[in-house]
Hints:
Blueprint: H1 2-30, H2 34-53, H3 57-73, H4 75-102, H5 104-111, H6 117-130, H7 133-149, H8 153-157, H9 159-178, H10 180-206, H11 218-249, H12 255-290, H13 294-321, H14 323-331, H15 338-352, H16 355-369, H17 375-426, H18 432-454, H19 462-488
Amino acid sequence: MFKSSVMVMIINMLSRILGLVREMLIASFFGATGMTDAYFGAFKISNFFTQLLGEGALGSVFIPLYNEKRELEGKEKANDLIFSVLNLVFVFSTTVSILMILFSKYMLIIFVGFKDAARFEAADRLLKIMAFYFLFISLSGIVSAVLNNFKKFLISTSTALVFNITIISGVLLFGKKYGIYGLGFSVLLSGLFQLLMQLPEFFLIVKKYKLVFDIKDKYIREMFLLMIPTLIGIFGYQINEMVDTRFAAMLDAGTVSALSYASRLYLLPIGVFAISLSVVIFPSLSKAAVKKEYGVVKDQIERGMNMLAFFVIPSQIALMFYSKEIIALIYERGTFNSQSVLITSQALTFYSLGLLFYSTIHLLTRSHYVFKDRKRPVMSSFVGIGINVVLDIILYKQYKHMGLTFATSTAAMVNYMILLYSLNKNYIKINFKKYIKFIVITLIFSALAYVISTYVPEIGNFRLDIIIKLAVFALIYLLFWSRSIIKKRINMFG
């Protein structure tokens, strides 16, 4: 399992590198302006609906039920369940996409709240353009979940590469001619391409398409019942993001964009490590839970938590203490000026405070899901959201973008602590002593690696200087762990 995790991490790393290239191009072409605010605001609404069914939300409910049905009723019946879900998702997603087009203005008023006509009209056009992205990604999410369940991680994970390549190509080909709207069309096409690239491998598993709508299937009914709390939780999280965006929209023009650019870097280790691990570990956890192999479940969860700490904590230290240099390295060119660097780097610093918490939430949430527990992750999510909203209200006027990002990190910490306590109390007994010890050692090694990296002599080229410092930081960190890596290898996480 953990070897598969490494493979998925490598693919995700390549994707995230392309994602940085994507953001560099967007920043260079469009800067941090009112037009980029319009794009990011519209995309947040499209992504709000996307996360309902795409990006693993429905898959996390569907896969345990699919495995159970396959175990009890056989492959053929289980495949019927796949197509029932796909066909239902197609009808629902098409309807929502059409509604997004028809009621785009009202959605922007509710969720974004731009006061000036220029940003509002641009966001309205962009939302209409990107509406059917939801349909393609929803179907892609189901197909990806099936592929992951059969350990076809390479294809499903590579969809992120296709997304970034499409956006990059769109900016280069259409950015000058169509402006920000070329970016919107690129997002739409990326959803279509992500779906199409998975279909050949998908049909090798299911053999042929079936027009099935078996809503009487007990597994369909159970899926809908389990989806209700899951969707509430996802709605809650997305509402959290929307609240942040709305507060940011009340600040200076470019603040929404600054938060979005910073979040791309903040999400880099989450995408590479947390989501990669969750993609690989969830089918294994689900199958172990169905067979009541709770010792296997406990072992994999604890290994996963340590693995995340190993990768995420040094990322956290680097992003916090080298934030300004990293932002300048990646974004400072074209219309992205020094003021944009300052605001974005400050946002990144405070986002990074919650990086370990937010990364581990992915694993802890799915660990509850394998026990068919949606209630506790939802309640935990809402507690975190409540804290985030309250802190946004208290902090945004005085501390602006820094207050908003600090609120996000604080909410992630609370959510993490509640889920960790819940998992330990209700399902598995986590060895907290070993876990805390691993975190402390990782923090010490990361801090020492950072201090040593600051003593690297500068050669006068700003971009090359920061690249060398980050490389030294990574090398020193790995050297501290080298004995454990050589002797224990994967067992160092156990």
